[in-house]
Amino acid sequence: MAERYDVVVVGARCAGATLAHDLAQAGLSVALVDRARFPSDTLSSHFFESPGIATLGRLGLLDEMTSAGAPFLDVINYRIGDVAGVDPYFQDPGAPGASMCVRRTVLDTALVRVASEAGAHVLTNTRVTGLVSTDGRVTGITHADGADRDGQFDAELVVGADGTGSTVARFAGARRYHALPNQRFCYWGYFEGAAEPDPPALLFHRFDDETFAGFACDAGLYVAVTCPSLQALPAFSDDLDGAFAATIQRCEPLASILAGAHRVGPLRGMANYPLFFREAAGPGWALVGDACHFKEPVAAQGISDAFRQAERLAESIVSGLGGAIPVDEALAGWWAWRDGDAIDMHWLAADMGAAGPVPAVLVELLRDLQGSPDRLWDFWGLFHHRTRPTQLFTPERFAAVVDRVAGTSLSSQVMAELDGMAELANQRGRLVASPSFLEDAAHLNKSSPSPRIIGVSSH
Question: Distance between CA atoms of 312 and 334, rounded to whole angstroms?
C-alpha cells in the first residue's frame, strides 16, 4: 500500500531541502527524495550573496557554515573591461556578511539534515521512476531504492527540485521557453595554500574574452574558476590541466593568489548547459530551482535563486493546501512570480556570458558609476536582487555615456552597440509577451479515474 503525504519533493539540494524544511515546519507531511547519498557533490558555482546568507541564518545553519571555515566575503576585487577596483561588496542592511562560498558536499548535507529535523521524511539513494496520474492530475510518484525495490508515494502535490535534467519535468511534460545556448564553459578547482587576500575577497574579472572568479570557501580551500568561450573548448579537451593552468595565468591577481597553492582533487566543469525557463506548475505538480529555470552561471545566482524560490513556493503551497485559495490558483501565482522575479537577471546573465569582450558602452557606463560609490553600490545590488537591471541601465545613463565619448574613437562603437541593444531588448520583449515553447507537454490520461504511471525512468 502506498504511503501518503501532502507533498513529495524530488531533489534534496538547495531548493528541495529548503522547501521540504519550510513545508514540514508549516505542519505539512513531506517526503524528500533524492537519488544521491549525502555527502554528495554536484556541479555548482558555490557562491551566494547576502540573501542566501540570510536563509542559512533562518535555517539555523550559518554558525555551522562559518565553523566549517567559510568566511564572509565582504570585499570585491573586480575588473570589467579596463575598469577595475577593490571595494566593499554590496551587503543587505543587517546581514552578517556580503557573500559566502560553501562546497556543496558541506552545504547540501546540512540542508538535508535540517529538513529531516523539521519533520520531513528523507529518502536518499532513491530514484523516481514515474509520476502517478489520476484523472489528468499528478497524484504521486513511483520510486526505487538502491536495491531496486519498488515503492509508491501518493501526494496532493509533487514538486520537482531535481535540477536541469529534472525527471519530474520530463514526466510531467513541462515545456521550456526563453531558451538560449550557452556561449561559454566553466572549469574550477579547489586549492590549498592559496595566498588569500586579507580581508577575504570575491574576485571577479571579465575582460577581453576572459572571465575569472576566485574566492575562499570552507575547510581553508580556495576556489578558482575560469569560464572561456566555447572556441577554447578543444584545448581543454586535449589537455585539461594544462589549459586550465595556462588560462589562469591570464588573470594576474588570480595567478598570484594561486602561485604557491596546491590543487586538491580533480578539476570540475560543465560545457553544455542550455539556459531556459520551464513551465513551473501544472495539475498536481510544480518545479523549483534549476528544474524550472537555469540561467548563465557566470552570474552565480543559482544558490540564491534556489533559496528565494523555495521560500516563495512554500508560501504558495501552504496557502493552496491550507484552503486559503485553490491550490492550482496558488501554483499559477507562484509561476507568475517566478517569471517576473527571474526574467531580467536571465537576460543580464546571458549578456554577461556572451562570447567576446564586454561591450564598450557597458564598460563606459560602469566607469561613470565608479565615480560615485552610491551608484556603484547599486550595480553590485543587481546580484542581491536589490536593484533591477532596468533601474540601473537607464536611457539617461546611456545618454551620459554617449555625450562623454562624443568625438572620441569610441563614439561610433558605442552608438552601434546601443542600436544592437535596443533591437535585442525589443526581441526579448516580444518573447516575454509571446513565449516560444519547446517540447510538447505529455498528455495525461484524463478519461481513466484510476491512478496510472505516466513515465518510467531507467536511471
Answer: 7
